[in-house]
Every structure is written in C-alpha cells, then in structure tokens.
Specification:
- This protein is α/β, with parallel strands linked by helices.
- The chain has one domain: 3-Layer(aba) Sandwich (Rossmann fold).
- The chain contains seven helices and six strands, in the order E-H-E-H-H-E-H-E-H-E-E-H-H.
- The N and C termini lie far apart (about 45 Å).
- Bound molecules: flavin mononucleotide (FMN).
- Flavin mononucleotide binds near residues 20, 24, 25, 26 and 125.
Length: about 200
C-alpha cells in the first residue's frame, strides 16, 4: 500500500473595503473568497473596519499591534491574495494603501513581499474612468510587490451596476462570471513559478 498525503488547503487572504456598512468593494472581495472556499481554500478576510484599526505605517517604528501582526502573518503564510478598493479621487484608498505599506515587513522574508503569489484585484467606483485607473494602479502595486495580478481584474461601476440582490447574493451575471473566473485563476495558479524565480534569481 502506498501512503499518500493530501495537499494542504490553499490559504487565500482578502483585504479591502471601506467604512461603509455595505461596502461594495468588500462584498465583492468576499464573493471571490467564497468561490475560492468552494474550490477548497481556507480564507481570511481583513475588511474596512479592521484595516482602519491599523496605525499609520511608520517605517521607523518596529513596534507592531496585534492587528498589524495578524495581517502580516496571514499574508506571510498565504498562497494567494485578493485586494479590493474603491476608486477614491481616481486611485485606490488610503485605507488599502496603509495596509499594503505595512507589508513592507515581508521585505526580508525568504519569500519577499508577494513573490510568486497570484493576486486578484477588485475595484468599485462611481464611474468607469476611476474603475480603470484604480485597477491599473493596483496592478502596478502588485507588480512592485513581486506578485502576479490575475488576468481577470474585477471593476464594478457602483452607480450603473447592481452587483447584489436583496438576499445579498450576487445578482449580476457578468460580475458573478468575473468573480468565478478570478477565483479559478487564483486557485489554478502554478505555484512552482515562485520557486524557479527564487532559485534562479532575476536576470
Ligand atoms: C472620498 C471619495 C472619493 C471618491 N472618488 C471617486 C472618483 O474619483 N471616481 C469615482 O468614480 N468614484 C469616486 N468615489 C465613489 C466610490 O468609488 C464608489 O462609491 C465606491 O463604489 C465606494 O466603494 P464602497 O461601496 O466599497 O464603499 C469616491 C467616493 C469617496 C467617498
């Protein structure tokens, strides 16, 4: 008889959203996480209120609150990330940027920042222009952090589209398809890529 060990479940961390009770960016990140969970992932969400409890990141202060440690450790141990932001003044929000800046703590790790990780991106904005500019800005950030933005990025116009029905479930077929496709890309990502890049270095 051959012993087989089942692979551990992939860990997917979501972060994003706003202070608003029914934050659309948060709900869509949660929808992506739910699809990942349906495909076997273990998921953890850091929503708007939890990101708001993080102090302003100060590179000269090594002290970390329990909340800061929780976010850093979750990302340190994860296999994929989903980041969601509203479009604020044509870019992503300060709340999300502060959380991303804290992940500077991963710079000295064997796996630096988001190296080798698929990163799903979600944006909601009141207009198409900010949908595009904010998604593009987030992609740049993920590249800077050595992550791999999934080909499917989700941009929702919160004035023209109604992603959720009264029961709280995704009610827009197009958005539901994008959510599923992004989750599939996250879960199907070839994790070997990171090992090769780490081993061979970058030319
Ligand atoms: C401070 C602020 C700035 C905003 N700037 C823009 C903007 O430049 N372009 C845009 O289309 N929508 C803008 N919006 C609208 C939000 O992007 C939109 O309502 C978004 O769906 C809110 O996300 P949430 O539901 O997660 O809170 C802004 C909203 C706020 C509060």
């Amino acid at each position: 008889m051959t012993a087989t060990s089942s692979p551990r479940r992939k860990r997917v961390v979501g972060l994003g959203g706003t202070f608003r009770q029914a934050s659309s960016s948060e709900r869509i990140v949660r929808a992506v996480l739910a699809e990942c969970a349906a495909m076997g992932a273990e998921t953890t969400m850091f929503d708007g209120p939890s990101l708001a409890r993080l102090p302003h990141f100060n590179p000269e202060n090594p002290a970390r609150t329990a909340e800061e440690q929780a976010l850093v450790e979750a990302v340190r141990g994860c296999d994929a990330i989903v980041i969601g932001s509203p479009g604020y003044h044509g870019g992503y929000s300060g709340l999300v940027k502060n959380a991303v800046d804290l992940l500077e703590d991963l710079r000295g790790d064997a796996r630096v920042y988001f190296e080798g990780l698929p990163v799903g991106l979600v944006v909601t904005a009141a207009g198409w222009q900010a949908c595009g500019t904010t998604l593009s800005a987030l992609r740049d950030v993920v590249h800077a952090m050595r992550g791999w933005p999934t080909p499917v990025g989700i941009a929702v116009n919160s004035v023209e589209q109604r992603p959720f029905g009264p029961d709280g479930a995704l009610a827009d077929d197009g958005i539901a398809r994008a959510v599923r496709a992004q989750a599939q890309q996250i879960m199907g990502f070839a994790f070997e890529v990171s090992t090769e890049v780490s081993a061979g270095g970058l030319a």
